[in-house]
Every structure is written in C-alpha cells, then in structure tokens.
Write a structure and sequence with these properties.
Radius of gyration: 19 Å
Number of helices: 4
Shape: rod-shaped
Structural class: mainly alpha
Oligomer: single chain
Strand content: under 5%
Largest sheet: none
Number of strands: 0
Distance between the termini: 71 Å
Length: 102
C-alpha cells in the first residue's frame, strides 16, 4: 500500500511539474511574440521597405501562434491572449496580401 501511495504521489508531482513547465513556456513564448508583432499603427507609420521586412518577420511569429493555438493546455491557460494575437496576425496577413497586389 505504501508503494502505491508513493507511486501515486510521484505521478501527481510529475503531472504538476509538466503543467507548470508548459504554462511557463507558453507564457514566455506569447510574451516574446506579442512584443515582436507590429501593431497596425506601427505598420501604417513605417516606410514601405520597413513594412515589407516587418511583415516577413511577423509571418514567422504568426506561424508560432498557430502552433500554440492547437495546443489544448496552452489554449486553456492563455486562450484570450492567443486569440488577440491571432486577430493581430490576421491583420498582418491582410496587409501582406494588399502589398503583394493582384
């Protein structure tokens, strides 16, 4: 019985550590991506060359947001922030399409 209790306690500790590590990794990734994504106002104020370069960098960050969006634990813990960054990425994609032309 003691052995079962010990195994169960270690399992609970391991799951708790995994959740904590996942939360910290998601929080860090979201904060980094959020600080690097240009706002709509910043894109409007940039010259065309800088805008194109910023959109290229933002495209990679938006792909990271997509991967975070499909992680159920991350979506549960940071869903609102992921949603706002996804909306910002949609604006960036629209801006990219408008700069590329027909």
């Amino acid at each position: 019985m003691k052995r079962l209790g010990l195994v169960l306690a270690l399992l609970i500790i391991a799951v708790g550590a995994w959740v904590d590590l996942s939360y910290r990794a998601a929080r860090t990734a979201i904060a980094e991506i959020g600080s690097r994504l240009p706002s709509e106002e910043a894109l409007n104020a940039m010259p065309l060359d800088a805008t194109v370069e910023a959109l290229k960098q933002a495209s990679a960050d938006c792909q990271r947001i997509e991967s975070l969006k499909w992680n159920p634990l991350t979506r549960l813990l940071k869903g609102d922030e992921i949603k706002s960054l996804t909306e910002q990425c949609e604006l960036i994609k629209e801006r990219q399409k408008s700069l590329q032309g027909p």
